[in-house]
Design goal:
The structure is a single chain. A hairpin with a 2-residue loop joins β9 and β10. It contains 24 helices and 50 strands. By secondary structure, it is of the alpha+beta class. The strands form 14 sheets. Strands 5-6-7-8 form a four-stranded antiparallel beta sheet. A four-stranded antiparallel beta sheet has the order 9-10-11-12, with helices on one face.
């Protein structure tokens, strides 16, 4: 291991003496430049290891070691090329361990974790990973910090000999680039490790070239540059020609003397330094000249390059000189850029970006069957196509380009049905790039010609009407795949054409498109020659549901499910319904909107609005709905809501009008708003319309349509009680129950709607009736009729209900507000039930005597916190502030906490 020397501080002081200007120390230690790194580098080229025996450095210029363009050309190598280069430098890595006991890992095999780096003014963002090979790190850092990856490779070699080292110790990777390893102090541990070294050094080079923190080797001036850290070895004036050379001197602030230059990769004399010499040696031996040839575009290529945005555009910087091309396919010029090529021939001057060029090169470039480009690349929605003399190349973003030979302007014109059919050409040939595929399109007086990988086909103006409305080739139909056909049939005559994603049909009914999914069902039903006849509408979709109207029916489907054909769902059926179903609406009046084709998961069909209502037609039938019904229907989500489609005629009887739907009924009393009744069966309406009800006698009033936050439903008063119908069912309630129900706010109160039938209760503690509701119960006995909330019922049921020790309720439920806490309580024959935040618990009469004596829940005991329990001869119940205990037959005792 060679001793590494770093003399930044000495160097700064020395320069200050030489030029008479003190370079501010802060510049060398500012945060943006903390990773400053200067070095003699490896004192020689390690001839024994490298096998290199260069003995002179022809062309070395200390003021222009490498050009700016070459230094910052980040696109010189791909990751694969970097890996291949590293593989070629080490045939086999030594198996063993270094002085720290770590296994040897050669650079070509190295994989390390990397950290994500946010973009700043020196480097773009770097996305870290749990493990990345050295080649990938070099490639990504070069791209992020705009440094030639060849520069980074050479620096790894000149600093630690890592490129061709066959037994590298781990410490070499920790200081791989010499970054943040000053001569006067240990290396900064923040920069230890291969990734930190490579990223830090590349970023540092951009800081150096910026010239904000480092200015004592500024390009464009002559500077005295040391030969060696030993100042007695002297200096020589060097004109620093560019920023890249300036950056190298900040990194290694010494120039090779004559002895070092004469030695090639070998050792010079006591005043020789080797860092910048070895940089030049390795670079020229491995990658060629450090200078960039004149590759600035000129002429037509320059014009096209500027149109594409120049160096900052998609093509990027020039990567090679212009080539003059002579070929049987035609002569011209071509130039490579970072992001593609520009070709200029008699056909014009056109750009081709890298995705196109990959396929173009594979097809033989301009010397192959494709020949020269004939158009600029056309792109839409991430898909691009370029026309060549012998075909097209197309690609979608992120996918390889494909070549279609023979798809040319000539082939499109050759497939045309003739001038008498197509008429005059309108406009220029269009080169089309699209996710549906690339191709060519030409408009004519009487239609269009389209050519894609599926072939070249004519589409008349009739077909084009529907094709254009469906989005042309960029829509779901895509490109034509078969010739237009003329159809003669008893159902009517017309034309039809198949496309990638469906068909277009044109008849006297109009021109309409149909998807492939729609066509499966249409074909199964006999196509235009079957019962359905010709399409009468475009396919309409809402979400995943689609539908299309035909002369004699409708086809509907939900994507991913089979299509359903509905014969008879037609405008004619709707017209018939509008003239016959007039008992409620009388005349529907004039149509207010065109006929709608409805696609919905609830089913497909037709709908149309009129002055006095609507008509809906589905496989459930065709029915008229009045304006009153439609108001509630719309509020409930129309046919797209839970009600779905109408299933019957709107009727009125007495004070009740109603219309059934798939998911319920809409009902109203004349002159009052209609109400959507979800989940109420038609039988409920028949029951409530009856003048007699079992057990409660004759009807005493008309049917009420009830709309309430507790739920909508129907109610009717009878001589001895009421009938209520909701989505929970239809139940009668006697006058006894109704006394408590009314007192509790009826169905609009906390009890809500009945959920079970009224039951007669026979018990030794007394007989009565009880009924369950959504929010509790009502009990009626000789003790009275009282409502009990669900909270009270929890404790009441746990205590055995009316058949338990508590017996029947004897008082109304109380709402209690107290500093001990809020809740509810109710008195029963044999005790009480209390419900608070602590829970719901029953208390016997024995406990209640002591509880009342202690101030009830308003006293020190507060609310019950547990159920009354008995063990052996002792019973007890816990409260917030204590316990009440007793032995059966004896008074209870209160114990406070």
């Amino acid at each position: 291991m060679r001793h590494r020397t770093r003399f930044l501080t000495v160097f700064v002081a020395a320069i200050a003496v030489v030029i008479g200007t003190v370079a501010p120390l802060e510049s060398a230690t500012a945060s943006a430049a903390m990773s400053a790194s200067t070095s003699l580098a490896r004192s020689t080229g390690d001839v024994a290891q490298t096998g290199m025996v260069k003995t002179s450095l022809a062309g070395f210029n200390p003021g222009n070691i490498i050009s700016d363009a070459m230094f910052t050309n980040s696109g010189t190598m791909t990751e694969a090329q970097i890996q291949s280069f590293l593989n070629g430098k080490v045939a086999k890595c030594v198996v063993g361990k270094d002085e720290d006991g770590l296994p040897f890992v050669c650079l070509k095999d190295l994989k390390v974790p990397t950290q994500s780096k946010a973009a700043d003014m020196y480097c773009s963002a770097y996305a870290g990973a749990s493990s990345e090979p050295a080649a990938r790190i070099l490639y990504k850092v070069a791209r992020a910090c705009n440094i030639n990856p060849q520069v980074l490779i050479v620096m790894l070699q000149k600093e630690q000999g890592l490129v061709n080292h066959v037994w590298p110790s781990n410490w070499r990777y920790n200081k791989a680039m010499g970054q943040a390893c000053p001569d006067t102090a240990p290396c900064d541990t923040a920069f230890a490790g291969f990734f930190a070294q490579v990223y830090g050094a590349a970023r540092q080079m951009q800081i150096y070239m910026e010239g904000k923190y480092f200015q004592w080797y500024k390009a464009g001036r002559t500077w005295p540059v040391l030969y060696h850290p030993n100042a007695s070895c002297g200096t020589a004036p060097v004109y620093i020609a560019n920023k890249a050379t300036e950056a190298l001197y900040y990194y290694t602030p010494y120039q090779p003397n004559a002895a070092a230059l004469k030695a090639g990769y070998g050792t010079g004399d006591g005043c020789s330094s080797y860092g910048n010499r070895n940089f030049y040696n390795y670079f020229t031996d491995w990658f060629g000249s450090t200078q960039t040839p004149a590759i600035t575009p000129t002429g037509a290529i320059a014009t096209e390059w500027k149109r594409m945005g120049g160096a900052s555009g998609a093509l990027g910087k020039p990567a090679a000189v212009v080539q003059a091309v002579t070929d049987p396919n035609g002569n011209g010029f071509a130039q490579k850029f970072a992001g593609g090529w520009i070709h200029s021939s008699a056909a014009g001057t056109f750009s081709s970006l890298t995705p196109i060029m990959t396929a173009y090169s594979a097809a033989g470039w301009l010397r192959g069957s494709l020949g020269w480009p004939l158009s600029q690349t056309a792109c839409a929605n991430g898909s691009c196509t370029q026309l060549f003399d012998g075909g097209i190349i197309s690609y979608a973003s992120g996918k390889p380009a494909t070549t279609t030979l023979g798809l040319t302007e000539r082939s499109l014109y050759a497939a045309s049905p003739g001038l008498s059919t197509v008429g005059a050409m309108v406009g220029e040939l269009q080169v089309v790039g699209d996710p549906n595929g690339g191709g060519l399109a030409q408009k004519y007086q009487n239609g269009w010609m389209h050519a894609s990988s599926s072939g070249a086909f004519w589409s008349s103006t009739g077909i084009m009407t529907g094709y254009s409305r469906a989005g042309w080739l960029r829509g779901f139909l895509g490109w034509p795949i078969k010739a237009e056909q003329i159809v003669s049939d008893p159902n009517g005559n017309g034309v039809a054409q198949e496309f990638q994603g469906g068909w277009v049909h044109s008849s006297t009914a109009g021109t309409f498109s149909s998807s492939t999914e729609m066509m499966k069902a249409y074909s199964a039903a006999g196509w235009v020659r079957g019962q359905l006849g010709w399409p009468t509408s475009d396919e309409a979709c809402t979400g995943q549901a689609c539908a299309q109207a035909f002369t004699k029916g409708v086809i509907g489907y939900v994507k991913g499910q089979g299509a359903v054909t509905k014969i008879g769902v037609t405008p004619a059926a709707m017209k018939t319904a509008a003239t016959q179903q007039v008992n409620v609406t009388k005349s529907l009046g004039a149509a207010q909107a065109p006929l709608q084709v409805i696609a919905d998961p609830n089913g497909s069909g037709l709908a149309q609005k009129f002055a006095n209502g609507w008509v809906h037609s589905s496989d459930k039938g065709t029915f008229v709905s009045s304006t009153s019904v439609m108001t509630a229907y719309s509020s409930a989500g129309w046919l797209r809501g839970t009600l779905g489609w109408p299933t019957g005629i709107e009727t009125c009887s007495g004070t009740l009008c109603s219309q059934p739907f798939e998911g319920g009924t809409i009902a109203y009393s004349p002159g009052k708003p209609a109400v959507a009744l979800h989940g109420i069966a038609a039988q409920a309406f028949a029951t409530l319309r009856s003048p007699q009800a079992t057990g409660i006698g004759a009807a005493a009033a008309g049917v009420q349509v009830v709309k309430d936050p507790n739920g909508n439903g129907l109610a009717r008063k009878y001589a001895a009680g009421w009938l209520h119908a909701s989505d929970r069912g239809t139940f009668s309630s006697s006058l006894r129950i109704m006394t408590g129900y009314s007192a509790a706010g009826w169905l609009r109160g906390s009890l809500g709607w009945p959920v079970k039938a009224e039951q007669t209760v026979t018990d030794p503690k007394g007989n009565g009736v009880a009924q369950e509701f959504e929010g509790g119960w009502i009990h009626s006995s000789n003790a009275g009729t009282y409502a009990s909330s669900s909270k009270i019922m929890a404790g009441y049921s746990a205590a055995g209900w009316v058949r338990g020790d508590l017996g029947w309720p004897v008082k109304a439920e109380q709402v209690v507000t107290d500093r001990n806490g809020n809740g509810v309580a109710q008195s029963f024959q044999g005790g009480w039930v209390h419900s608070s935040a602590a829970g719901t618990f029953a208390s016997s009469s024995t406990v209640m005597k002591a509880y009342s004596a202690a101030g009830w829940l308003r006293g020190k005991l507060g609310w019950p916190t547990g159920a009354e329990t008995c063990s052996g001869t002792t019973c007890s119940q816990t409260f917030t502030g204590g316990t009440i205990s007793y032995s059966p037959g004896k008074p209870a005792v209160t114990t406070f906490k």
